[in-house]
Amino acid sequence: MRLPVVAFRQAAGAIFLLCLLGISAFAKHAPRRVEIRIEDLKYKPAEIEVGAGDTVVWVNDDDTDHLVKAEDGSFNSGRIASGRSFEHKFEKAGTFIYHDDLHPRMKGTIKVTDQ
Fold this sequence. Notes:
By secondary structure, this protein is α+β, with helices and mostly antiparallel strands. The protein has one helix spanning 2-26, and strands spanning 33-39, 42-44, 47-51, 55-60, 66-70, 76-80, 85-89, 94-99, 107-113.
């Protein structure tokens, strides 16, 4: 009569492990908000990595207007006045290069992973 108890424990253990594996396989990271500061005519930091679903917020701490524009056209802030911000949610993986049309030497890169 011990065989059914042992078999039951083994089956229960296997089911538990499968549940854990299933949950971790489908778990996504919680969306984050990541800030990029605009100061001294620079993006700080100029390169970041985020996960799909994360939002990037550019905050203009400079004393002049700025513009954040993706080279592939996927986002464009328009003018961001001093003290204001612009945000964009990245839905898919890829590398996004952006620049400031008002200050052409300002460039940045955002790498978006599937996570």
